[in-house]
Amino acid sequence: MDPTVEPHTVLPLLVLFVPETAFRRSDHLNTDFRGDTTRYGGEQFAHGFDSEHERTGIPSSASDHVMARKKISFARSLLLFNGRKTDESFFKLILRPLPLFLHPGVLWACLIQGTLIGWTVYIGITLAATFLGPPLWLDELSTGFLYCGPFIGAVLGFLLSGFISDWSSKLLTKRNHGVYEPEFRMVLVIPQLVFGSAGLYGFGIVSENVSSGILPAFFFGLEVMGMVLGAVASALYVVDAHRKTLQCVQSSKYR
Question: Computed from CA positions of residues 211, 212, 213, 216, in that sequence, does the dihedral angle turn out positive or negative?
């Protein structure tokens, strides 16, 4: 069976029935940005809420209400360009990621994700060299089936990360007297270390004297599980702790 049949079949469905969407979040919904000194509605607020609007986050005037946008037509959604999704400068959007790499939180997230992602790519490259030759002499199809291990590992990693992330955050918030901290999301790096290290070392050991494809696929799955756990941990932490930085929210938006 031609492996390109499925992508060619899915691509038209993706273009026709999965339109590009963008959501402009109203400023009054950014309640987690209110702790700092900001300008909002032409007045200065510092370390607290000086109005009912600031306390509840509900707009007090009709001008603050977000008007519902009319849904675009199906034909317009198929256009290559169907309108601007932001008011930011085009060149500013292009250059914005560069200084973010210097942010400690973003740098940590890149290292946490990138390390095991790099090892995953490296293991995938070495599969052919390890199993197509001696002593197993597997064919291309049998070698491809070895990716069943990482596929199962990825699914289990997503399920485990969702359970541990929510459970640990609730537990630590309760022990912290009801105060949530974004660092509670970092608990996921512990199982990432366990599964990722076990997968990397295990795959290297069994591949040196390989006698079957089962154990390499198993340890490859553990490594991918650790990769998923690290990716979820870093993403959740960065979004919770540095959402304002990542979105580059500027004080000019509150003027």
Answer: negative
